[in-house]
Design a protein that fits this description.
Blueprint (H helix, E strand, L loop, with lengths): L2 E6 L6 H7 L1 E4 L2 E4 L2 E4 L5 H9 L6 E3 L3 H11 L5 E6 L7 H8 L7 E6 L4 H16 L4 H14 L1 E5 L4 H5 L6 H8 L5 E5 L2 E6 L4 H16 L5 E7 L3 H14 L4 E6 L2 H7 L4 E7 L5
Parallel strand pairs: 1-2, 1-6, 6-7, 11-12
Antiparallel strand pairs: 3-4, 3-5, 8-9, 8-13, 9-10, 11-13
Length: 283
């Protein structure tokens, strides 16, 4: 069976990764002052600079169902099946849109997957699926590996301004929490596919230290780990944090990624995150 791998733009994979592993992308869009822009058509730096002068915050939208249909129609000419991996269904309707298309083909199977998360953590599933598909693994075998990834996958992040998440409705219980969180830097994470407050921390520096402690707990378990630092137009700060992590945990494999326009719409400029999972490529 020849399997295609599709994801959406919020996995924030590079063009080189997509070309190397034959990964297809469906772009989400940002709506900036009534202009709809696919996030693959605007750089994060340009986006965050533009937001500074906007009176209202941008919003985001999922790929149109017609765009997805066109892609799957094209893939059906070459492939027997497609695994389509998307950001959390609690953040976007993208997964459900793809799911609604999964039964319309007779000889071409669509297997939608809700990663329950986003950004480079979502990308872990995509890259592993693409590698396995190229090596001839079955859909069932790939989904079994997804279960393995979920067991060790962790993601924590800190934002400079919770207003973005609250106004966009992406922070669970955000309105109730906002008043008590204005003067602190809470650590956020995903729980049941939703963004929630993990711990309330007084400063960003202490919040990053706490995330380092959480990473150390998994490092001590002894399995190989890939860790990715993610930033929202804060590359200098992200690189500095990576150097700290490399000194503390030199055996890990490190990668750098970013919060693009769609996710950046909800997190705001300056957000920093760290995600990690068992490094399956080391075996």
């Amino acid at each position: 069976m020849k399997i295609a791998v599709v994801t959406d733009s919020t996995a924030y994979l590079t063009d080189e990764q997509c070309e190397l592993y034959s990964i297809y992308r469906l772009p989400l869009s940002v709506i900036m002052e009534n202009e709809v822009i696919e996030e693959t058509e605007i750089s994060p730096t340009t986006f965050f600079e533009a937001v500074k002068s906007m009176e209202t915050l941008p919003t985001s939208s999922q790929p149109p169902i017609g765009q997805a249909s066109v892609l799957f129609n094209e893939l059906s000419k070459t492939y027997d099946a497609v695994i389509s991996i998307h950001l959390s269904s609690e953040l976007s309707g993208t997964y459900n849109t793809i799911k609604s298309l999964s039964g319309i083909y007779e000889d071409f199977k669509i297997y939608p997957y809700d990663s329950g998360i986003s950004c480079s953590a979502q990308g872990y599933f995509v890259l592993e699926a693409a590698r396995m598909a190229k090596e001839g693994y079955t859909v069932e075998e790939i989904f079994q590996v997804f279960e393995k990834i979920q067991k060790t996958l962790q993601a924590y992040f800190v934002v400079d301004d919770l207003n973005h998440l609250v106004r966009g409705g992406r922070l669970s219980n955000g309105s109730a929490l906002l008043g008590s969180l204005l003067k602190i830097k809470p650590i956020l994470h995903f729980e049941d596919k939703k963004i929630t407050v993990f711990e309330k921390i007084r400063t960003k520096k202490k919040a990053l230290k706490r995330i380092e402690q959480l990473l150390e707990e998994d490092v001590e378990k002894g399995y190989p780990i890939v860790a990715t630092i993610i930033h929202a137009n804060a590359e200098k700060e992200a690189l500095a944090w990576m150097e700290v992590l490399k000194q503390q945990y030199p055996t890990l494999r490190y990668e750098m990624s970013y919060f693009g326009p769609v996710i950046g719409t909800h997190l705001g400029e300056g957000a920093l995150g760290l995600t990690w999972a068992e490094d399956l490529t080391s075996k």
